[in-house]
From TrEMBL, chain A:
Residue ranges constituting the DUF362 domain according to the UniProt record: 74-271
Pfam families: DUF362
InterPro entries, A to Z: DUF362
Name used for this protein in its record: DUF362 domain-containing protein
Organism: Bacteroides sedimenti
TrEMBL record, chain B:
Domain 4Fe-4S ferredoxin-type: 216-245, 246-272, 330-359, 369-400, 408-443, 448-480
Keyword list, A-Z: 4Fe-4S, Electron transport, Iron, Iron-sulfur, Membrane, Metal-binding, Transmembrane, Transmembrane helix, Transport
Species, as recorded: Bacteroides sedimenti
Protein name per UniProt: Ferredoxin
Taxonomic lineage: Bacteria, Pseudomonadati, Bacteroidota, Bacteroidia, Bacteroidales
Domain of life: Bacteria
Length: 311, 504
């Protein structure tokens, strides 16, 4: 690289360094705040466009600024696993992703990054899902995640099978991160929702499949740096042939959205929502019960404060 | 002036073509493909009549301009020659007698072998393919290395404009062949100018034969010439016999170096027929350069390590009987009779599923592209290789056609499957299957296990690539010798489902 280009690159990216918060601080952000000040444990919305539903959900949750503070570096993990257009409901709805990013910036985020460890060719997934474009429009950076060098090993002391995992540095280097899965049917895991979405922050997914998938999904959900928010996109729902989907007939326009800090709870709710479309027993989605056993969250929705909004 | 124009065009040509080969990010404009289609052997194999006519006309009009500005390997030798000029103060060529026996012998042998179905010889000696292999096996990894270095540096500054790429050598054999070709060709260019083009290259021989009759030629005006011989020392084709004022047109690659060298203005490039008397080519040659080609032919005995260990606990290894040829290649036979192993498809395949074969297709098919699922699988919607092949070895497919092209058929081995051996959920295969030729059917205790429908399978290998079962995959794809039409995906009727409530 020429000296001039080098300097230009410096100028463009800006040299302002990130103040990395320590581990203890992390814990505080990720879990502490919720228990104390939240009006609701979960907000469920139905009947609007993705961005509209999110706006009312986050308002009910107390506003984005409760989760994202000024100057934060935020990582966002939608599902961008497949080379599919938004209509096919293989990936998170780009409009929703865009709205979440916008609100992060409105809340004062310094930087927002978006990534997923995709199943199909990552460039095609990023592009055809519409997420790359939407994210960039909202001012976020879209990071690659297709090489092992982007991942760092963390240990999962509370896990049963998956004792360590290589997790994408965007998650590890963020102040907070937001999980935006799409709700869909899944041949192996039965359902993919919040916790299954965490497979995309990990490098070696094959290990999951080979070592009791349902347990490994629960295991990765025990990571100490939990998402501050889980926003389940159930606007379009792939009811069958998931996670890839065969044709448009797999997709149902359900217009739902669920937000919670508790992955187990929001996944439980989502399965119940889903089972109105096609049969799906909560027991068969074994990673949810497995995670609840590992104290990742709460399956008992009756004990929770849930706000239901119909638009 | 002519020389400068030649150099300019040649450099543009070489850069564009090289970039087309090494461009892993798909940023080269699609039009670049045109440059591969006007290469002679690809045009012949694809029966690309337009390109063939243009090339023949070009040669009949202007001589071997193909060799000076179109053929990337020719230009590459000029680059090597130029570099040698930087080191040695004065590079002096001298007239060499032709080696017609050798040249036309090779041309004949290559043609004969090709029609007998042994394409390997053509692949090995044909310049465009040699260059293609050099570019994809050697230049490309270098380019990627550079990219990764830059990405790392930018990464320090939180710039993610670039991204890392995995650098893989898809076939050691092809890599070695490409390396040897690069060394030999560059060395020959460095030391002997266009010796390769005039002794070995079958395309050079063919065009050389034609260019004896071309209209525009480098002509020596006997009346002006004082036989100083400067022109001959500049001629990298070693084809100027200044004593007899003769140029061997079958070897002249129209580099125009001689034009500028002549102080007497005795050499010109024109169409006048007045010096026709001089146009008798010198006689045939003597020494054999076969040894050089022999070097390229070395074969490496590759002992394949077999995993015999875990056969014990009832696991079964899968042995592919027929390799999967790229979608659109019609059949292994069609591929073998059209492909010269330039590796453009291998290079441009975004999914890293194409790889040069070793002996999977038999000896005649060495280095030809096949699908292999170690590093990737064939993207359902991708048609890059079929759109990119200049030879017509892989015919262009639309996305819809590709969706119905069955390159191979899925085979499931229950004994190896994770669900069967460990009683846990897996389903990675079905997850990846674009056609749902693998679906998960109820098994026991709420578990599901794969069931396959080979008729709708397209042979993309998604399932094989992703299956985590060890040491043997539980799901594999067997190649089709002739590509079949997959049954279209059954569209289920769209049910009008309304979700009215939260359900919790
Ligand atoms: S069964 Fe395997 S090879 Fe066949 S289409 Fe599905 S994933 Fe591809
Ligand atoms: S990916 Fe392999 S192990 Fe897993 S269900 Fe499919 S065939 Fe079985």
């Amino acid at each position: 690289m020429k000296r001039r280009d080098f300097l230009r690159a410096l100028a463009l990216t800006g040299l302002a360094t990130t103040v990395e918060p320590g581990k203890a601080f992390d814990m505080l952000i990720q879990t502490g705040e919720n228990a104390a000040g939240n009006a609701y444990d979960m907000v469920a919305v139905m009947g609007g466009e993705p961005e509209v539903m999110f706006r009312s959900a986050i308002k009910a949750m107390g506003g984005m600024s409760k989760f994202v503070k000024k100057g934060y570096k935020v990582a966002i993990k939608p599902n961008i696993g497949w080379d599919k257009t938004p209509e096919m409901a293989g990936n998170t709805n780009p409009k929703l992703v865009k709205e979440v990013i916008k609100q992060c910036f409105d809340a004062g985020a310094k930087e927002v990054v978006v990534f997923d460890h995709t199943c199909d060719d990552w460039r095609k997934c990023y592009k055809n899902s519409g997420i790359e474009e939407a994210a960039k429009e909202a001012g976020a950076k879209v990071l690659p995640a297709h090489e092992e060098s982007y991942y760092r090993t963390i240990s999962l002391p509370n896990a049963l099978n998956l004792k360590t995992a290589k997790v994408h540095e965007a998650i590890l280097d963020s102040d907070v991160w937001i999980n935006i899965p799409i709700l869909k049917n899944h041949g192996g895991a039965k359902m993919t929702i919040s916790m299954k979405n965490l497979m995309g922050i990990v490098w070696n997914r094959g290990y999951f499949h080979a070592n009791n998938l349902q347990q490994c999904i629960a295991d990765i959900s025990t990571l100490s740096k939990r998402p501050v928010l889980n926003v389940v996109d159930a606007y379009r729902v792939m009811k069958s042939n998931g996670p890839r989907g065969k044709s448009a007939s797999d997709v149902v326009l359900a217009k739902g959205l669920f937000v919670s800090q508790d992955m187990v709870a929001v996944d439980t709710a989502a399965v119940k929502f889903f089972s109105q479309i096609t049969d799906m027993r909560l027991e068969d989605v074994a990673h949810i019960a497995n995670a609840s056993k590992l104290k990742v969250g709460n399956m008992n929705l009756d004990k929770m404060k849930i706000k239901r909004i119909k638009l | 002036m002519l020389r400068k124009i030649r150099i300019a065009i040649a450099l543009i040509m070489l850069s564009l073509l090289s970039f087309y080969f090494i461009d892993f990010a798909g940023i080269a404009p699609v039009e670049t493909k045109l440059l591969t289609k006007i290469q002679l052997v690809p045009a012949l194999l694809a029966l690309n009549i337009g390109a063939i006519i243009i090339l023949l006309l070009l040669t009949f009009l202007f001589g071997r301009v193909y060799c000076s500005v179109i053929c990337p390997l020719g230009i590459w030798q000029d680059v090597a020659e130029f570099i040698s000029g930087l080191f040695k103060r004065k590079r002096k060529y001298k007239f060499l007698p032709t080696r017609n026996l050798l040249r036309y012998g090779i041309l004949g042998a290559v043609t004969l072998a090709f029609f007998l179905g042994f394409t390997f010889l053509l692949s090995l000696l044909e310049p465009y393919s040699i260059f293609g292999r050099i570019a994809s096996n050697i230049f490309r990894p270098l380019y990627q290395e550079g990219n990764n270095l830059l990405t790392t540096i930018l990464g320090w500054f939180n710039n993610y404009k670039l991204y890392m790429v995995e650098i893989t050598i898809r076939s050691i054999f092809s890599f070695i062949i490409a390396g040897i070709s690069l060394l030999i060709i560059s060395f020959m260019g460095y030391r002997y100018g266009r010796l390769y083009c005039n002794t070995i290259c079958p395309v050079g021989s063919l065009l050389g034969f034609l260019s004896k009759y071309s209209l525009f030629k480098v002509r020596i005006d006997k009346n002006k010439c004082n036989s100083c011989g400067v022109c001959a020392t500049k001629c990298k084709a070693s084809c100027i016999n200044s004593k007899d004022h003769q140029v061997d047109y079958s070897r002249c690659v129209t580099c125009f170096n001689c034009l500028e060298s002549c102080k007497k203005d005795a050499i010109s490039y024109d169409w006048s027929l007045k010096t026709a008397a001089n146009e008798k080519g010198p006689n045939s040659g003597r020494r054999s350069f076969m040894a050089v080609t022999g070097a390229g032919l070395i074969t490496i005995p590759l002992a394949k390590a077999k995993n015999t260990a875990a056969l014990l606990n009832g696991k079964k290894a899968f042995k592919r009987k027929q390799p999967l040829s790229p979608p659109g290649s019609v059949s292994a036979e069609h591929l073998l009779s059209h492909c010269t192993a330039c590796h453009l498809c291998v290079s441009r395949c975004p999914s890293h599923v194409l790889k040069p074969a070793f002996t999977e297709y038999g000896l005649g098919g060495i280095m030809q592209p096949m699908m292999s699922f170690e590093e990737g699988f064939c993207n359902y919607d991708c048609t890059v290789c079929s759109q990119t092949c200049p030879n017509g070895a892989i015919l262009p497919l639309t996305k819809e056609e590709k969706h119905l092209t069955q390159t191979g058929r899925v085979v499931f081995t229950l004994e190896n499957c994770i669900v069967y051996s460990y009683d846990t959920d897996c389903g990675a295969c079905s997850e990846h299957c674009p056609t749902q030729a693998v679906t998960m059917k109820p098994y026991k205790d709420g578990l599901t296990i794969p069931t396959v429908d080979p008729d709708i399978c397209v042979g993309c290998g998604g399932c094989e690539y992703v299956c985590p079962a060890e040491p043997f995959k539980a799901i594999n794809v067997e190649g089709n010798a002739v590509q079949l039409e997959a049954k279209p995906i059954k569209e289920e009727k769209e049910k009008d489902i309304k979700v009215e409530d939260f359900g919790f």
